[in-house]
Amino acid sequence: MSWGKRLTGYWNKPQHAAYLFIAPAVLIITLFCIVPMLASFGISTMNITTYFTSSKFVGWGNFAEAFHDSKFLNSWKVTGIYTVCVVPIMICFALFMAALVNSERRSDKFFRTIFILPIICSSTVTGLMWKLFLDPNIGWGIYAMEKLGLPSMDIFSNVKLAIFGIVFITVWSGFGVSCMILVAAMQGVSTSLYEAASLDGANAFQKSLHVTIPGISSTLWFILITQIIASFQVFDLVYVITNGGPAHSTETVVSYVYSNAFTTNNRLGYSTAMSEVLFVVILLVTVLLYSRMLAQEKNGGAQ
Amino acid sequence: MKMLKRFVAVSMALMMVLGATACSKGNSSSQPAASDKNTKEPVTIEFWNGWTGPDAEMLKKLVKEYNEKNTDGVTVKMDIMEFSSLTEKLAAALASNTNPQLHLGFAQGEYTIEQQYIPIDGVFEKTNLKKTDFDQDILKNCYYNGHLYGLPFQITSEYLFWNKDLFKKAGLDPDKAPATWEDLLQYSKKIDALGDNIIGGGFSFNDGIAIGSIIQDYGGNVVGADGASYKSVLTDPMYLTANKQAIDLVQRFTHQNKKNISTTKTESSFLAGRCGMMIAGSWELAGCKKNKLNYGISLMPSGPKGGFQTAWPVSMCVMKNTTGRKLEACYSFLNYWNNNLENKIAGNGNSPAFQWTQQQGYQPYLLSVANDTKLTSDKDYQVTSSYIKHYQNYYPATFWNAYLLSTQILQPIGENVGNDKMTVDQALEASKNDLDKMITQMKQTEKTGATASSSK
After folding, report:
1. Given this model, what pLDDT does residue B27 score?
2. B292 CB-near residues (< 8 Å, 6+ apart)
3. What is the pLDDT of residue B21?
4. Strand intervals (E) in B257-360
5. Distance CA B395, CA B407 (A)
6. Are residues B149 and B186 in the same domain?
């Protein structure tokens, strides 16, 4: 048999042909994800500017510097506060709203559409809109608060309130998608389980706790993991609204990495080292949560 | 049905192809062609800057005039964008050697140290510009290591603006500005008491330039010389008491100013006629006149040790990879902008440098502009140009990170004490640590820049 026939014969087999079909995707992922990831690790071991000048190998020097950088540690504190506030509020609020609009009534369908509308706007537009809305001089929101007798305040210039302002905007813009996913999951729970619960005398709250929540637990885990990852990577809202201020009170990890790379220091190597730390933390948290999720599903299956 | 499917598929494919061709880079129709009289080979140079707002309109007008009238065959393609976008875009462009030819920046700044700017020592020989027409003290700021890295473009200082109508309402003399920083606090309190959404104003807790001036006026300092290098003197025993007094004033003012308003909001409130005072650059004059405000302008108030004005010179610089015909084109544009003695395009006395001072309110760096009676008879110009008699910066003349000094060192002091996040001592200590880090980084950058240049 000639080489050509052997080759075509090999690749014609379905189990081999599959590799040909996924080859373009693998190539793109390798070129645009794997290679940059490896290159970024290389860059993180160097003292190099954003213009790719002044390069010098420093090994773990950038990482050591990062762990002694008070602003980097502050950015982790800010990111932690942000994540601890956004994730539970987002999930609880989305769950509550999903429970309210989980039917085929026209009004519920209308509200589901309303809830998902904020996702149409980009984060930049959302951030600018809320920044203007809450501006103490020209914002309609603050004007309405003053008319209701509440004190006027410049939320985004206040070191204690600014981060919570951003938390609020994140929840406002993001809960719709989580809500829709939860509605779909809730509608997948078998009605026979609810009937059985009713026969056992369960009230609405008990049905939610013992039928709905276990029934949608894998969806809840998915939302939890994706929201935590998104919270660790928050940047656009912070950049548009406060740019890390006032007094670094809203400077998240990605904001600090960005300002080090492009605004204040032009230190590409150091910024890349900090983003490698972020990558490792997100990876660890994801693996932990995913293992926990699998363990729970296994226990649930065993029961 | 089959025909319909085929028709839809073909139409979609055609639309995608047309869309791809529409995305291709072509000549912008807004770029006017060079004059038919040109005999020189046409060349296009790119000019990037972050001068948005009213300055952008003036810049576009002046660049358009040059493009239409110059006989050197040069077309300047200007790209104006927000500073943050500009910094990011420029970094990528420099790394990939697709950078613009002209840029507005600091001739003694990081771009020069990192060799992203090129020296333009030949500009006076290759153009009709007269070096003697430049204010030599200002031109000094464009030299680094004995080479000229740009020509002055504008001098930025800050002044006290006040609303005369609000002064009158508050029982204050409308023609008299507060002489000292303590007076400013008192005036602001009286105007605040007017209520009805009026704010006293003054300076903002996050105005690094004003904070730097207050520090100097109390006898303090921020950066001192350390041989050929620099050192932080924020907590130096020689200056600590004065620095603490200055920051205490900032804290008292911010506590008094309940709305805790930032610089941008103070300026917008002032232009809306709802703020008594603001510290801002002379570029606000255009807005005050446009909004028909009954305003006054003076130098910044003084402190116990005097009244000092900080000023920043921004330069028009030529970026790396600019050689041959493109470098010639940059020189041609620099000549057009600064040749106030015999500007053949704009006419005598109407050079862009002159117009930039006359209409945008920036300080002149050309002696022929500074002495022009069309300017010297303007009362606002008489005030703003007098900054030179009180000119002193809170850092040595060779310190090239002055912009970051204001935003990364002084501004956080104001934010930290204004928001009660730190005490005065803690805020000074925190900023001192940040400044030490900045200076260490600057020394490393200078060392690497010197090594790179000596290896060429």
Report:
1. 41
2. none
3. 53
4. 275-281, 295-299, 311-318
5. 14
6. no
Its CATH architecture, for the domain A60-302, is Orthogonal Bundle (1.10)
- Model pTM? 0.80
pLDDT top residue among A128 and A302: A128
Chain A residues lying within 8 Å of B116, measured CB to CB: 51, 53
State the CATH number of the domain containing residue B374: 3.40.190.10
Instruction: Write the burial class of residue A243 (CB in 10 Å: 0-12 exposed, 13-18 middle, 19+ buried).
Output: middle
Q: Among all residues of chain A, which has the CA nearest to that of B95? A: A51
pLDDT of residue A93: 95
Residues in chain A within 8 Å Cβ distance of B265: 135-137, 154, 157
Q: Which residues of A touch B444 (CB under 8 A)?
A: 47
Asked if B262 is an interface residue toward chain A (Cβ–Cβ < 8 A), one would say yes
Q: In Å, how far are A18, A22, A105, B363 from A12, measured between CA atoms?
A: 9, 15, 52, 77
How many beta-carbon pairs under 8 angstroms link A with B?
A: 84
Token representation of residue B225: 């010389």
CA pair distance B182, A281, nearest whole angstrom:
50
Within-domain flag for B263: yes
Q: Report the pLDDT averaged over residues A43-67.
A: 90
| Helices (runs of H) and strands (runs of E) counted in chain B | 20, 12
Is there a single domain that holds both residue B179 and residue B271? yes
Q: How far is A140 from chain B (nearest CA, A)?
A: 14
Same domain, B271 and B416: yes
Report the pLDDT averaged over residues A1-29. 84
Can you tell me the ipTM of this complex? Answer: 0.73
- pLDDT value of position A301: 55
Q: Establish if B445 belongs to a structural domain.
A: no
Q: Is B116 part of the contact surface with chain A (CB cutoff 8 Å)?
A: yes
Structural contact between residues B182 and B254, judged by C-beta atoms closer than 8 angstroms: no
| CB of B372 less than 8 A from some CB of A | no
Would you say residue A197 has pLDDT above 50? yes
CA closest to B269 among chain A residues: A137
Element (H, E) at B200: strand B199-202
Q: What is the 3-state secondary structure (H, E, C) of chain A?
A: CCHHHHHHHHHHCHHHHHHHHHHHHHHHHHHHHHHHHHHHHHHHCEECECCCCCCEECCCHHHHHHHCCHHHHHHHHHHHHHHHHHHHHHHHHHHHHHHHCCCCCHHHHHHHHHHHHHHHCCHHHHHHHHHHHCCCCCCHHHHHHHHCCCCCCCHHHCCCCHHHHHHHHHHHHHHHHHHHHHHHHHHCCCHHHHHHHHHCCCCHHHHHHHHHHHHCHHHHHHHHHHHHHHHHCCCHHHHHHCCCCCCCCCCCHHHHHHHHHHHCCCEHHHHHHHHHHHHHHHHHHHHHHHHHHHHHHHHHHHC
Contacts of A262 in chain B (CB under 8 A): 84, 87-88, 91
Least confident of A66-70, A96-100, B16-20: B16-20
pLDDT for A229 equals 95
- Domain contains B447: no
Query: What size, in residues, is chain B?
Result: 456
Q: Do A159 and B421 touch (CB under 8 A)?
A: yes
* Total structural domains within chain B: 2
For residue B329, which phi and psi values (nearest 5 degrees)?
-65, -40
Q: Which residue has the higher pLDDT, B364 or A225?
A: A225
Among B335, B163, B343, which residue's Cα sits nearest to residue B266?
B163
Given a cut of 70, the residues of chain B with pLDDT beneath it are 13, 16-39, 258-261, 347-349, 448-456
| Residues A232/A257, Cβ–Cβ less than 8 Å | no
Q: Which residues of B144-177 are buried (b: 16+ CB within 10 A; e: fewer)?
A: beeebbbbbbbbebbbbbbbbebbebbebebeeb
Q: What is the pLDDT of residue A7?
A: 79
Q: Which of B95, B274, B444 faces A52 most closely, judged by CB atoms?
A: B95
